[in-house]
Amino acid sequence: MIRNAILILGMLLSSLILRAGDISKYVLDNYLIPVGKPGIMIGHIYPVPSDIRLLCDTSSLFRVDAKEKSVSLKKNKALSKGQVTYRYGITLLIDGQEYKFELLKDGFSKNKVVAHRGAWKQKGFLQTLSVLFRMQ
């Protein structure tokens, strides 16, 4: 029985280690694209890389500032309020490795977080945290 418990624990730990390795080394500090602001900077890349280039931008909306290590809208490009598309994918070459990012039109989703304890005292259910999404 103890042997089975150790085996199961080992399997759980190895799956956590594999998942942690899948996490991207680089992140953007902001993924929301402001509406009606041409050329605006969207986000900086962290940790700060030594080299960065834009490899793929199917929407032709974005540019990379290699000096500032940031992603921006092109000077003459802006999103409009009535624009239907809300998700944009870009691929960056950061220090010789490809990284994919998804940028979202600001105002697309508004999150409301509602925490509750449920009926844990009466029914013995675990306490939960519910996240509700409201799209506008």
Short description:
The chain has 136 residues and is of the alpha+beta class. Helices cover 18% and strands 42% of the residues.
Describe the protein's topology.
Blueprint: H1 2-21, E1 27-28, E2 32-33, E3 41-46, E4 52-57, E5 62-65, E6 70-73, E7 87-94, E8 97-105, E9 109-116, H2 120-123, E10 128-135
Parallel strand pairs: 2-8
Antiparallel strand pairs: 1-3, 3-6, 4-7, 5-6, 7-8, 9-10
Give a structural overview.
The chain has two helices and ten strands; from the N terminus they run αβββββββββαβ. By secondary structure, the protein is of the alpha+beta class. The protein has a domain at 27-108: Cadherins (Immunoglobulin-like, Sandwich), CATH 2.60.40. Strands 1-3-6-5 form a four-stranded antiparallel sheet, with no helix packed on it. The protein has a four-stranded mixed sheet with strand order 2-8-7-4, with no helix packed on it. Strands 9-10 form a two-stranded antiparallel ribbon. A hairpin with a 2-residue loop joins β7 (87-94) and β8 (97-105). Mean pLDDT is 77; it is low at 17-22 and 127-136.
Strand elements, count: 10
Order of helices and strands: HEEEEEEEEEHE
What is the arithmetic mean of pLDDT?
Answer: 77
Give the overall shape, derived from the CA principal axes: extended
Give the name of the CATH architecture of the domain at 27-108: Sandwich
Largest sheet: 4 strands, antiparallel
The CATH topology of the domain at 27-108 is Immunoglobulin-like
